[in-house]
Amino acid sequence: MVGASGVDARSEVLTSNGRIDMVMEFEDKIYIIEFKCDQSPEAAIRQIREKGYDRKFRQSGKKLILLGVNFSTEKRNVDKWVAAPA
Hints:
Layout: E1 8-15, E2 18-25, E3 29-37, H1 41-51, E4 63-72, E5 77-85
Parallel strand pairs: 3-4
Antiparallel strand pairs: 1-2, 2-3, 4-5
């Protein structure tokens, strides 16, 4: 469902290979987001690629952006994030 901001944000998006933590779909682009805790954001990107989470969005014609986000339990906040093209 598209919110007032014009963004369709969905969590726990089911695929045949697992669940995408979050998908944010804009008019011209789609963010595929994987969250990690006390790991590397690169590990999150690797999981998106290995599980093919972007496959179901490739026919959309929109720019696909993979986003890996790591939360630190020590800092109790986002520690690091990485964006990569699909």
